[in-house]
Structure formats: C-alpha cells, structure tokens
Specification:
By secondary structure, this protein is an alpha/beta fold. The chain folds into two domains: 3-93, Rossmann fold; 96-201, Rossmann fold, CATH 3.40.50. The protein is 49% helix and 17% strand. The protein has ten helices and eight strands. It has helices at 13-22, 35-43, 49-64, 76-81, 95-103, 119-132, 147-152, 156-168, 184-194, 201-212; strands spanning 3-9, 27-33, 70-73, 91-93, 109-113, 139-143, 175-178, 198-199. It has a four-stranded parallel sheet, with helices on both faces. The chain has a four-stranded parallel sheet with strand order 6-5-7-8. Helix 5 crosses helix 6 (119-132). The chain is globular, with a radius of gyration of 17 Å. The model has no long low-confidence stretch (mean pLDDT 89).
Amino acid sequence: MKKKIGCLHAHYSNIDYIETALSAYNFKLSHFVDPGLMQRVTSDPSFTEAEAERKVKDQVEWIVKTGVDAVLITCTNYIALLKEETLNVPIIKIDEPYFEAICKIDEPQTILFTNPNTVSGTMTRLQHYAQHHLKTLDIEVVVIENSFEIFMRGEKEKYQREVANALKKQNQQRIVSVAQLSMVAAAQQVEREASMTIINPLDTLVSSMVNQLKLS
C-alpha cells in the first residue's frame, strides 16, 4: 500500500521537484500551497510571529486530518515557525536531512541561497542542529544577488543559468551546497559539467524519507 504524504509548500514550483524526486517510490502525494503566508511575514509589520506560528500549526493540523501517513514541509521558514507539536503522524522537515549531511563534513563549506528571506531561518536552525549534535561548522553564506526575482517572474532558464554560473565560481577548496529546492536543477547540471559534488536538500530528503518510512 502506498504511503500517503501531505506536502506543505510556500511556492507552487516545489511541487514538480518533489513529484519528480519521489516518483520512483511507493508514495501517494497530495500538495498544499500557501505563498501568501511568507509574503505577509516579510511585508506586513502588524503580522506577529505568534500569528504566523499559529497559521503554520493550523495548516499542518489540517493536512493531518486529511488522512495522511506523514507530512512533508518543504519551506524552511515554515519549519522555523512550526513549534514542536505532538501529532499522530511523522512531520518530515526538508532541511533536517540536509543539515545532517552538512554536519558530517569537517572541511570548510559554502552554502548558497537565492532568496535572502530564507537565510536567517535556515542558518539559525542549522546552528541549533549543529550545537545539538556537538558539531562546530566552518560555513560561508553566499546569496546570489537579484536572482530570486528572476525565479519569481517565472524565468526558470535564466534563473538556472544565474545559479549555475555562481556555483562554478565557488572556491573548489570548500564543500559547496545549495539551500533551496529551486536551486537543485542548476546544482545537478554543474555537478555533471564540472565534475564537482554539490550537496542539495532534495537528494538528502529522498534518502531520509525512504529510510524513515521504511521503503525500498
């Protein structure tokens, strides 16, 4: 029997990434998308963090009530807003397998972002994860300036070129990773063309989900 996974996204583009990555496995995916929450968090000073936390909690509880076996959250800002809740299904957070992979590395690392609004939440969670696992990280953060606006305009090919070009310019002496799902295609392209390894949150997620939900 297929495992039913409810996926909570902050942007519709994440659906294709998740569908493609998990298509080979015994999952039945349903998708719930709310781009408005993060827009309000970043643009409405009157919208409090407590209200944002309550909204994410309500969304996750709604998804659980649809009868899923697990909930996958693909937005790091949503994850940061979700307090530890006691629910009767697993909550799979896309960044935790990614953090696990990063924390296994002792060499200097560079993490690239295109969306500056995701940097603070992601890096705060990464530092907490590292401290909890008694790891000290040497990490440089690089934001590819003005690239996320290209993505939001729907110019995916141009966006991918911008990300790929930025990846190729990185110091080859550092371990490189990308922090956002929208960057995965460019990272995989550069891996093929430049024969360099680039950690991404999609590959680490798939491996973790297969193990966690005991699929072969």
